[in-house]
Amino acid sequence: MLSYAAEVGKDEGFNPPDAGDFNLPPFIEGNEFATKPILLVFLSVILISIFFILASRKAALVPSKLQFAGESVYSFVRNDLGREVIGHEFMRFVPYLFTLFTFILVNNLFGIIPLIQFPTMSRISFPYVLAAFTFFIFHYVGIRKQGFLKYMKEIMFLPGIPKPAYILITPLELATYFLVRPMTLSLRLFANMFAGHLLLLVFILGGEHLLQGVIGLKLISPFAFAIGIALTFFEFMVQCLQAYIFTLLTALYIAGALADEH
Amino acid sequence: MRSIELAAAEELNPLIPHTAEIIVGFIAFSLLYMVLRRAVVPRFEKAFAERTDAIQGGMERAEKAQIEAEAALKQYKAQLQDARGEAASIREEARVQGAAIIEEMRVKAQEEATRIAASAQAAIESERQAALTSLRNEVGTLATQLASKIVGEALDDQVRQSRIVDRFLEDLEKSK
């Protein structure tokens, strides 16, 4: 398997990590589906399914440790993200929010799990897919609840604004609902994972490179590794936070579409 | 070589999605959604519902038990009150009855005493009458005998005799 640097023929010496490092070539030549990110996505589905099926299998009155762990995650999404944000109709959306949260969380955590160490969400395709799901769901919910015309009218014409202001507000509102929301949702998640992983690569690959240099550089190398480790903890926080934010915003958008008035 | 370079240029832009990844993302996410929705969410919900039920049921049972205990206590108190009342009334009744019995006994004793006294009086009176009668007869007889002895005349006529005696006794009384 050729490295990317070798493929495009970079110089010898330290090549700082760049976007190219996120393009992992397929391990079966010519098969686009045989890449690490795709494998990781399937792995995440299997891991999450197994974990929660085991945790909920008995669903006992007095939970075991495993069931308690699974229930904690579930009730966090159900109560703090679903019930608190969406209100009385929340139960319909709990399965989606729960899937979204666990899926993003596990795929993000892959970024710091030893041996895996690749955040799947740093591949823009996956955030796009998730944002598309959220986009279609919250518009569908709004249209089903209020009817297409009323829903569009509510988006385009905010109440309590002087009529001429609609020239400015209406395009902005339309852009917010149909462009900005899905774009920011996917880009926020992608960019956080992308930048975080790049940061870790810089310090850890840099530290490794310094180790191969002269004695002075060898002495600096531990600092690079130390920062790399500190950043790993920081990344852990960011990864959890991003999963939370994506799910929270989805819940907020659904709640907004369900609400009669803005 | 040119195709590799083109691909590389495209790959360098991280905002361009890959068809394969889009497909996989869609399928994988849908799959996970179905698994969690079918197999996990209902079970957790069931556990939550059962737990709520158990806690609420327990509370309801406790409440019921407390109400029952309160009712029993009330009943016991009422019974105690009743018993006390009954005891007091029995005591009162006994006291009244006792007083009545004493009164009755007293009256009876009084009556008895009166009766005894009366009968004694009557007996004494009859005794006295008998004594008086016999005394009168005897005195009469003695006096008659004495008189006849003195007068020498037999005053055997009963009527006259008695008249004489009566007169004599009257005189005797007057002279007292």
TrEMBL record, chain B:
Main location: membrane
Subunit text: F-type ATPases have 2 components, F(1) - the catalytic core - and F(0) - the membrane proton channel. F(1) has five subunits: alpha(3), beta(3), gamma(1), delta(1), epsilon(1). F(0) has three main subunits: a(1), b(2) and c(10-14). The alpha and beta chains form an alternating ring which encloses part of the gamma chain. F(1) is attached to F(0) by a central stalk formed by the gamma and epsilon chains, while a peripheral stalk is formed by the delta and b chains.
Localisation: Cell membrane
Keywords, ordered alphabetically: ATP synthesis, Cell membrane, CF(0), Coiled coil, Hydrogen ion transport, Ion transport, Membrane, Transmembrane, Transmembrane helix, Transport
Name the UniProt record assigns to this protein: ATP synthase subunit b
Function: Component of the F(0) channel, it forms part of the peripheral stalk, linking F(1) to F(0). F(1)F(0) ATP synthase produces ATP from ADP in the presence of a proton or sodium gradient. F-type ATPases consist of two structural domains, F(1) containing the extramembraneous catalytic core and F(0) containing the membrane proton channel, linked together by a central stalk and a peripheral stalk. During catalysis, ATP synthesis in the catalytic domain of F(1) is coupled via a rotary mechanism of the central stalk subunits to proton translocation.
GO molecular function, one term: proton-transporting ATP synthase activity, rotational mechanism
